[in-house]
Design goal:
mainly beta
Length: 65
């Protein structure tokens, strides 16, 4: 069983609602490589947000190396 990542609620600007709204915020590790030999080295952190008013979801890569 995989552990559920912790989530926080923060007030942020929602481009869909065009106002400051509560957002559920979490971090997620995503695998970016499709090659089996590189999978273990290709995980990158992403910031995931979900507007609690309109349910719009967005993700942003946290490491641009």
């Amino acid at each position: 069983m995989a552990a559920t990542p912790p989530r926080q609620t923060m007030v942020e600007r929602c481009p869909s609602c065009e106002r400051e709204t509560d957002h559920e915020v979490s971090l997620e590790l995503r695998t970016e490589s499709t090659k089996a030999e590189n999978v273990r080295y290709s995980r990158e952190p992403y910031r995931i947000t979900r507007c609690l008013r309109c349910d719009e979801r967005r993700s942003q890569r946290m490491n641009n190396a």
